[in-house]
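Q: what sequence does this backbone want?
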């Protein structure tokens, strides 16, 4: 798939089939994230944890439900992972002590976009789950279970899987206001 077609094809998917992503495809997607452009070549300041076990996905979903119930009463029940069979948690090494303020967000954003574009190129859907980072960050037991080193802070998650519904057509168009000087 060519780059512009992949960019147009990539969208947030909120309903997944139960079919698991093949190991080879997942490894290529993770490798794409791992070679993202990185400020200060700070690859060692980021960590990715891959969740595929139904038990761990269930714990994450329950944690999101508890947090949602606090933040938005009445919204604490549901499938917050939208049936995604794979979730990747992106974490940063001690983000408050980052050499350049905010660099961990920029770097992790580059990783996330590479992951999502690589997934789209393979016909695999994705969506960013911001609240998942807070859930794992505040649950030391789950963080440990997911293999995230203690000194790393979970930032967000990316759900991955095959789309359960039809993708709406999307065209390459300017949607954000641009100022030019």
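A:
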């Amino acid at each position: 798939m060519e780059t512009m077609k992949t960019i147009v094809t990539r969208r947030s998917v909120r309903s997944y089939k139960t079919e698991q992503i093949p190991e080879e495809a997942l490894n290529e997607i993770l490798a794409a994230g791992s070679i993202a452009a990185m400020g200060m070549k700070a690859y060692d300041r980021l960590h990715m944890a891959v969740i595929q076990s139904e038990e761990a996905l269930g714990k994450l979903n329950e944690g999101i439900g508890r947090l949602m119930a606090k933040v938005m009463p009445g919204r604490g029940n549901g499938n917050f992972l939208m049936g995604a069979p794979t979730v990747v948690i992106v974490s940063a090494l001690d983000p408050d002590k980052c050499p350049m303020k905010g660099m961990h967000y920029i770097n992790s954003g580059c990783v996330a976009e590479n992951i999502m574009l690589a997934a789209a190129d393979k016909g695999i859907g994705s969506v960013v789950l911001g609240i998942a980072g807070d859930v794992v960050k505040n649950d030391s037991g789950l963080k440990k279970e997911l293999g995230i080193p203690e000194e790393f802070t979970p930032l967000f998650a990316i759900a991955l899987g095959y789309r359960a519904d039809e993708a709406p057509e999307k065209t390459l168009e300017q949607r954000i206001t641009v100022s030019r000087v």
